[in-house]
Amino acid sequence: MNSPRSLGASAAVRCRACKHDLVIDVSPERFEQLVAAAVDVIPADLARMIDNVVIVIEDEPPADDPGLLGLYEGVPLTERDSWYIAAMPDRIRIFRLPILRMCQSQAEVVREVHITVVHEIAHHFGIDDDTLHELGVG
After folding, report:
1. Is the pTM for the entire model greater than 0.85?
2. Which of 65, 67, 70, 117 is least enclosed, having the fewest CB within 10 Å?
3. Phi first, then psi: what are they for 24, rounded to 5°?
4. Distances (CA, A) of 45 to 22, 78, 126
5. Residue ranges of the chain with per-residue pLDDT less than 50
């Protein structure tokens, strides 16, 4: 599952200001289920187009960017060409604890996980942050 830090484009979802000091209790196993559920609702036609990407869940983002909720590291489909052969998988990293810190309820966690996963997968398809914000995703 390890891949280079970045093969090209890098895009991220940043945490809005945390609302409180308490952290919602969601186990790593349950959080993984929420991420899987978010992936499962992607329309089948789009899901079939996801290529050479792995989704990993980590507790914390890099120390130099503690507000990250998710991060896409790789080469978006729109930028791949004939040189993109036998490449290491792109990586989508979802950061569990920042998401839990910003939410006040289980329902908010489910919503934020969904938004973050969709946002990062959109980057895999080459959709930039400005377009995602216009569409209301992230």
Report:
1. no
2. 65
3. -60, 140
4. 39, 17, 16
5. 1-11, 15, 17, 19-20
